[in-house]
Amino acid sequence: MFACHICCYPWDLLDEGLTDVLDCLRDRIAATGLTLIVATDEMEQFRPRSGVEPRIHRTTGGVYFLPNEEKYQATRLKPPIWEQHRKMDVLAKVSEECAGRQLDLRVGINPLLCRRLVGKHPEAACKNAYGIASRNALCPGNPDVRQYVLSLVGDLSGYDDVSAIVIEDVQRPPATDPAPHVQALAMFDTDVADLLNVCFCESCLQGAERDGIDGQAALRCVRSALDRLGSRAIPQGWTLADLLADNPSIARYITWTDAVYLDLLKRLREVSNKSIILSFRNAPQTFVELEHAPDLFALADRITIDAEDLEGVIDELSRGERFAGVLTPASVKNMDLLLRMDEGSIDEAPEVVRQLTWAAEAGAGGTTVSHFGTILDHQLDWLHQGLRNARRVMQP
Ligand SMILES: [Zn+2]
Known about the structure:
By secondary structure, the chain is of the alpha/beta class. It contains 16 helices and 13 strands. It has helices at residues 10-16, 18-29, 90-100, 115-120, 143-156, 180-186, 202-210, 215-230, 240-246, 248-271, 285-288, 293-299, 310-318, 329-332, 349-361, 377-393, and strands at 3-8, 33-40, 43-46, 56-59, 62-63, 104-109, 125-127, 133-138, 162-167, 275-281, 302-306, 335-340, 366-370. The structure holds zinc ion. Zinc ion binds next to helix 7.
């Protein structure tokens, strides 16, 4: 059956009533499961449905379940617990209620972005070429960070009724926070400014040196390139690819940082007995161009594609173009397309129906819908209608 997972934050379940929400998922939408987000950064969410209070939910982020402290003994980073969680283990409760309704339960985490953890452990943050640390990005090159992520996944694996762990927004965390100086560089209309997102923290520089990569040389080249960009001393139309071709030390270093991140994802397999789902944001740009895409697809049990141009992706998918050589018809079955009901992109019932029908015709295994708390009341019925159509046309 064409699967449908609805992403929920724990506060949406608590504020709207856990049993009411789960009944709505199963009976009104005909969803097959729920993806409970259990680790995020600080965030603010406007909730438009009638009767939901508070209208704006604000959280400082952290983990939204009761962690097993023993699992984190090998890392200095300890999971920052959501304040409301001290009263009840929402994940345990949700797990029990989902099992009783035959709803599949996945948990979603974005473990490398956490302002609370960076605040406590500034040494674990990503650092850009100018030595400025990120305020929320934890560096996967830091051994404590790697162990923290593995501990978190191992801890969540202890919940029997959880079928899969979803790693949200798969990409190396950016070393520079979105800020005016980044926008200033963006106006030069070249992707060379992306170099600000390469991490040069102490852990990365030491790790690279151990592996025979000259991180200091790469750092000097990156700074010089960014300085030249700032003073407009670079040719018109100059791209990052041109720069990497001329500066193998930077290319080698970036390849090394990618490999460190990939290795962390691969190790999730060793600590988890659950399915691992990788969710790619703004795909296909971010992952198809990644030279590691085949490796990433091979290590995941399922992937979720969150594309700005969902129709374009579906269209190319159905013609077998962009994904040729990376996705096979068999692996497309293990792919969900992410439907964002909350960004104003879907404002008509036929659009929801059309997109879900196309996804099913293209062979996708299902959809993941983001996020329950922000879906308008009438959109719930559109979803139901879309799923009914998708299931009718789904390839056998
Ligand atoms: Zn680093």
